[in-house]
Amino acid sequence: MKIKAFCYDFNINDFKSTYIKPKFKIPSNGLIKVSTLIKYIHPLNNTLYTDKSCSEEKHIHNLIYGTGDNDQFSFKKRIQDGIERVNHEPIKMCPITGIIKSGNTRAKALDEVGAEYAYVQYADHIYNEKIPISFQLKVLEKYNTAGKRNEYSISSIYKKINEMKYAKEKETGEIFNPRKKIFKEFIRSFLSTYSLKEYELNILLRIETIQNKKIKENLLKNLNNHTFNDIKKIIARNKNKITKVYNPNRFNFLKHLKENPFLRKDIRHNISSCMIKLKNNLQLYDKKSEKMIELMTNKKFGFEPFSTTGFLSHLTMSSVAVSYNNYGLECQTAASDVGSDDIYFTNLSEIAFKKNKNFHSEMIDIKACNYGTSFFNTKIYGGPGFLHISEHEYIIPIFNNNFSKIFIMMATLNKDDVKSDSKGGTVSLSDWYKNHFEKKDFHFIAGKIFEGNKVPEIEWENVEDLLNPKTDKEVI
User: What is the pLDDT of residue 95?
Assistant: First the structure.
């Protein structure tokens, strides 16, 4: 006879409802020998339910002897009373493998008390050791939110969120950040299950930053005796601030770009293609003049000056990311994670984190700007975080007033290049020239900077020319 169950579908990376024929046989009375049952303890059970503050030993003791005098549901009392089903709540087992989904600790307690039989039923989910560990932990945690153990205690929540976080990090190769898209769904589900507020979860996650080992261990042993505000204060007094470390062997994006002229041409093509489409499509018809109004440049009905740099920066970000992905360097834009690097190189970052988890990620950021009245008053603007940047590569597109001409370079910037202003940080083109032109830590993608009549100047390229390989000048 077939039963309905959830099997993990590796194509969609989730469980899918289907009908299966059980391979693990359960007798009609639901009783199997405890000596058999104990062999099917879930291999990840100890991952979630063994810790310094809420041990399985205490829970097993409560199951056997009860939580009060003459507890009618304690295993010891039920055996004495001759009750066949010593565990009144059934242990749930995988219909295919027999692995216990719910009741692993009950199985241990039944074995310890000397019970002969255990009351079992089929679980709804099929166990498969190849399922990602984070999914296995999530299912195991869901099956065990209604037992005698206080699943909603702070210590229990702390244990589970950390184990599930570590499993997710291992699977994704990413350092856990609750703001990242790949972790958000997992966080939302966890918050919903335990009626937890986001700030409370963040407090628990910050326990790892406590520097003093003894203080940290003492807190974990007595976690359930503290409020979240207590824990927050302890963390604030003893936290170990984790600082990012410069990676001396970080990927050389400048060298890579210089050695791959076709990548450079693809970046030029993608940016210009998008810019031309943007200008052509962002138009409205003016009945009075009987002409189309180009919204990016029109002096009467167009956009506010300098407001265009934001979406031109995003246009460049997406164009460059697609080019790199096409040329074998797997990456993603900030679209996948608000507040992250503009272009985040997944595989390269994973390699770096394996060497040192505190290394900066492998990234390229984008800073677009409009050309000022001269080379010397052209500035690249950033927010407050721009003042504290780590040394890495930026792609900087600069546009003329009507967006018909463009200059693009990849340049290495560091915090010494950035000056503070009322809105955050800025890099003036003249300061960049003084700091870097002789160092050659840059590469021109479109146009170039040269020393004109004793002062530096930009040699522009027409945006349309970037689409035409015949006029594509190779600039070293």
Answer: 95
Whether residue 298 lies inside any domain: the answer is yes
The answer to whether residue 421 sits within a structural domain is: yes
Please check the confidence at residue 116 and state whether its pLDDT lies above 50: yes
Instruction: Count the residues in the chain.
Output: 476
pTM: 0.53
Per-residue pLDDT tens for 31-41? 999 999 999 99
On whether both 270 and 184 belong to a single domain, the answer is: no
Whether 98 has a pLDDT exceeding 90, the answer reads yes
What is the CB neighbour count within 10 angstroms for residue 380? 23
Query: In the chain, what is the straight-line distance between the N-terminal and C-terminal CA atoms, in Å?
Result: 72
Do 351 and 439 fall into the same domain?
yes
User: Which of 59-68, 102-111, 166-175 has the largest mean confidence?
Assistant: 102-111
pLDDT tens sequence across 240-276: 666 788 899 999 999 999 999 999 999 999 999 998 9
Is there a single domain that holds both residue 40 and residue 131?
A: yes
Q: Which domain holds residue 351?
A: 253-471
The C-alpha atoms of residue 303 and residue 87 are separated, in whole angstroms, by 72
Domain count of the fold of the chain = 3
For the cut 80, the answer to whether the pLDDT of residue 128 exceeds it is: yes
Question: Which residues are CB-neighbours of 103 under 8 A, at least 6 positions away?
Answer: 87, 89, 90, 91, 92, 120, 147
pLDDT score, position 423: 67
pLDDT band, very low/low/confident/very high, at 358 (cuts 50, 70, 90): confident
309: phi then psi, degrees, rounded to nearest 5: -60, -30
Q: Is residue 476 part of a domain?
A: no
Q: What's residue 50's pLDDT?
A: 56
More confident residue, 65 or 194: 65
What mean pLDDT do residues 134-146 have? 75
Q: How far apart are CA 392 and CA 94, in angstroms?
A: 51
- Say yes or no: 343 and 440 in one domain: yes
13 inside domain: yes
Block residue for tokens 């307690």: 109
Domain boundary among 111, 145, 179: 145
- The structure tokens 């721009």 sit at 386
| Same domain assignment for residues 365 and 401 | yes
